[in-house]
């Protein structure tokens, strides 16, 4: 069965279903499960589409590509709860029979509950708590990552209220740039002196030529793949996923693919997407024997300038990881969390929960 409806029930209210002990009106929550992303009802699919979800990583199309081309063996469990004309979605996958994980991997900049409509903070808490309650019947363990700090309190509170034992720790970090309404010249004036000097010196030599594509181009993509294969980067995990993403975002006008060449040879490449005022830097690479000309740095300069002056973005997101070079270009760094929850109503969760608790205790003592 593709979709399973969950009986509506009053959340956090007394048995009469009219008022809770604190006197607030009863909030009824409906819910359903989906095990196939391509069968989600049309109205729900629209709510998870480009027009209504500003973040690429919150869209049904993103999860569909990720599942189809990176993890087709994962069994999907997308949970939806609804109340007050708002939805909460958790798009999960079965890691094992009794273990659920976020439908995310190293291509994902973030993962969190997705809300549609305009829910208040209280409604968000109610909807996510309802989802957590329903998931008690589906799993002993749930792992969510990489979760932004802005969602951490909501997730922890919701799952604890639903009876889960919750453990959280910083998994990695995310470097971003808030443009703050400034122009590119002002931004560039604030960059480190060594970076500005490199760009000035190398640009004067006029060795590197740059191209920027905002639509998918097969020849440009072949150049990107050539650079990546010759770079210091490890072998691409799922090149077919990246190409499909580039084609999808290119068709929407959201792709920004930059290629740097020396004497016609591709020596540096970057893949960005830009949508709803946010530019995401997905991939960058350069050929090491071209380092003297700094093609990667010159290409970054051009890509950032385009994001400021042409796309007028509010935010540039450098993805996950604490690579030192990101600090030269970004002005903010936020933690991303790994949140592990155990359903202690199931005996199978007791030992792994205890093991996790002891592991966290040892880490805390080691850091004191």
UniProtKB/TrEMBL annotation:
Molecular-function GO term, any one: transferase activity
Disordered: annotated segments: 1-21
Stored InterPro entries: Acyl_CoA_acyltransferase, BioF2-like_GNAT_dom
Keywords: Transferase
Gene3D superfamilies cross-referenced by the UniProt entry: 3.40.630.30
Protein name per its UniProtKB record: GNAT family N-acetyltransferase
Chain ranges of the BioF2-like acetyltransferase domain: 218-327
């Amino acid at each position: 069965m593709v979709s399973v409806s969950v009986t509506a029930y009053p959340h956090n209210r007394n048995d009469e279903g009219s008022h809770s002990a604190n006197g607030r009106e009863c909030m009824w929550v409906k819910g359903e499960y989906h095990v196939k992303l391509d069968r989600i009802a049309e109205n729900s699919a629209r709510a998870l589409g480009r027009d209504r979800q500003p973040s690429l990583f919150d869209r049904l199309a993103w999860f569909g590509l990720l599942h189809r081309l990176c993890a087709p063996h994962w069994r999907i469990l997308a949970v939806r709860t609804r109340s007050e004309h708002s939805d909460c979605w958790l798009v999960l996958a079965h890691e094992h029979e009794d273990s659920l994980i976020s439908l995310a991997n190293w291509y994902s900049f973030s993962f969190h509950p997705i809300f549609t409509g305009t829910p208040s903070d209280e409604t968000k808490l109610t909807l996510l708590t309802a989802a957590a309650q329903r998931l008690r019947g589906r799993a002993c363990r749930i792992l969510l990552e990489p979760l932004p700090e802005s969602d951490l309190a909501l997730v922890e509170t919701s799952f604890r209220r639903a009876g889960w034992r919750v453990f959280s720790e910083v998994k990695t970090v995310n470097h971003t740039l808030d443009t703050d309404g400034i122009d590119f010249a002002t931004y560039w004036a604030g960059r480190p002196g060594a970076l500005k000097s490199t760009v000035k010196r190398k640009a004067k030599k006029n060795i590197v030529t740059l191209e920027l594509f905002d639509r998918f181009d097969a020849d440009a993509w072949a150049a990107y793949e050539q650079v990546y294969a010759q770079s210091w980067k490890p072998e691409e995990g799922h090149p077919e996923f990246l190409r499909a993403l580039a084609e999808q975002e290119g068709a929407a006008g959201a792709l920004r693919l930059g290629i740097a060449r020396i004497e016609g040879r591709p020596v540096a490449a970057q893949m960005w997407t830009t949508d709803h005022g946010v530019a995401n830097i997905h991939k960058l690479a350069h050929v090491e024997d071209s380092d003297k000309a700094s093609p990667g740095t010159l290409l970054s300069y051009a890509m950032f300038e385009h994001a400021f002056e042409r796309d007028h973005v509010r935010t540039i997101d450098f993805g996950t990881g604490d690579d030192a070079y990101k600090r030269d270009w970004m002005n903010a760094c936020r933690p991303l969390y790994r949140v592990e929850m155990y359903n202690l109503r199931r005996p199978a969760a007791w030992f792994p929960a205890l093991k996790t608790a002891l592991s966290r205790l040892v880490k805390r003592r080691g850091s004191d």
